[in-house]
Model the fold of this input.
Amino acid sequence: MARPWSQSSLAFLILVFAHFLPSALYASHDPVSFLRRFNRDLRGRTSMLLPLFLLPSNSSRTFSSSANTNNGRNLQRSDTHDTHDARMRLYDDLLSNGYYTTRLLIGTPPQSFALIVDTGSTVTYVPCSSCEHCGKHQDPNFKSELSTTYQPVKCNIDCSCDNEKKHCVYERQYAEMSSSSGVLGEDIISFGNKSELEPQKAVFGCENVETGDLYSQHADGIMGLGRGDLSIVDQLVDRGVITDSFSLCYGGMDIGGGAMVLGSLSPPSDMVFSHSEPARSPYYNVELKAIHVAGKPLLLNPSVFDGKHGTVLDSGTTYAYLPEAAFIAFKNAIMKELQPLKQISGPDPTYNDICFSGAGSEVLQLSKTFPAVEMVFGNDQKVSLSPENYLFRHSKVHGAYCLGIFQNGKDPTTLLGGVIVRNTLVMYDREHQKIGFWKTNCSELWERLRANDSSTPMPSASDNKNSSLGTPPVVAPSGPTNDVLPGGFQVGQITFYMSLAIKYLDLKPHIAELSQFIAHELDVNASQVHVLSFASEGNYSLIRWAISPASPAGYISNATASSIISRLADHRVRLPDRFGSYQLLEWNAEPPGRRTWWQQHYMVIIVGIVIIVFLGLSVSGLWFVWKRSQQSLLTYKPVDSIIPEQELQPL
Done:
């Protein structure tokens, strides 16, 4: 039975999909009144109308610090002792992207960015609109001139200054030879409408130059979660708005996305902890003492995992890297257990990957072929690693897998990247100097966190045998959420408004091309995308689009509608630069219109008419053939039959 569309459901959806209006529009005119004038034709129509609204500028806390007095991390602690947490969704996946991102909003009005969550970085940065050497990324560069709350951090004794000694600057270099540099600024940072934490003022980097992978990556920038004055975690802790803790939960082998919490969570009773010593290294480290493969310990001295920086957790690194002795022992132990499988070359000939074929494609079945691996900490607690925690799929051979653990060159540091913590809730309890691990379904954990139901216990791995079931993969960001629409609601049409910073006369010749791009971004057929109406005001155009069901369906399936709405609500429609800056203002899911008896049964009637005509023509054809055959019999005369003599007529 279909469930009624209740007010509580509507309120929930408004909270889930409330977003922001474009900063570019605020620079010249009021988009709300523009939209209101444009939207008069919708009155009286039955539909779900969910606005994407701007967070009010007075919704943030009162800050005692400003860019004029801020010295690096010199942010004053808030007088209030009330702490909340920021619950944020993670997007992307390790295999396709090599990282996970979250959405961070910066400025007033807020500008949205997809940032890689990186526990190995200590600064958060995004490309500046004035960037001299920045790549093409997912979102437009940050326009500081459009933010009414942005202020550059002035040069002081606690920071590196530019050549003019006016502003603080930063520079970061990474092991893969990429780098980022720019100026430091202070602005309001918002964590999304699912977060209990109100927008906060924070210092971040505005990039002027980026190189290497940072230049070519799809993500906009980095969200630094490491230990350091400029870390977003340190700044929030210094303000007293969150406890000194945060958690990450990455999806499984076949699932992208996950969840992140800035602030504390109540740890499950069976969470495994390891001591993490801040003085040991500037990175988050654990006391790894041994590794077991198929229940047998590798014959290694525990000190092998304590070289240089020790054993480091880095969420911004894709795979795991062991010191040479540890890697050789691990590889030999794995290959000894996998003798029945055929070893094959890796997907990229430039890398010497260790891959095996013949294991099947089901993630659930991998544990029957690949051995269990355990990490043993200094307190003798163990974390079990399933095959998805040390393997990655071969991209060219079906049913083949490769080791996701490599030798760390000659570096004695042990580096544990994202592959190790797939479907694992990792709690970075900095206050108590420990890091916790808990195997779970991270996509299911996100649903629980999003529901904000503290009375419901978090799911454990035993609650769901398939650690890779749940929300489908999401790409920067992508993937439908199952609770966008109630089960009883049928979607006949999805409409949305798009505001573009381009004159309509310049846009009109390219409407067909624009609809093709929108169809591609929403993963629908071009024939399903229609322009309903448009309006223009100055240098801006406002277009109302409609997504109709694919022919001959009378409605859009909830799965497809959820995917479309997710992309619209999360502002994940990417268009070429020639269409100018744009923003999605509002989406609207309408039920199928009431059809007349003829509209409901016209196909049956047409089929019936065709059948009747076919039968009529068939009967007529048979009668005609029979009639001709009878005439042939009547006109036949034997050779010796007497024929009456006929008189010849005179010429």
About this structure: The first helix runs from residue 7 to 17. The chain has 13 helices and 33 strands. Confidence is low (pLDDT under 50) at residues 1-81, 449-484.
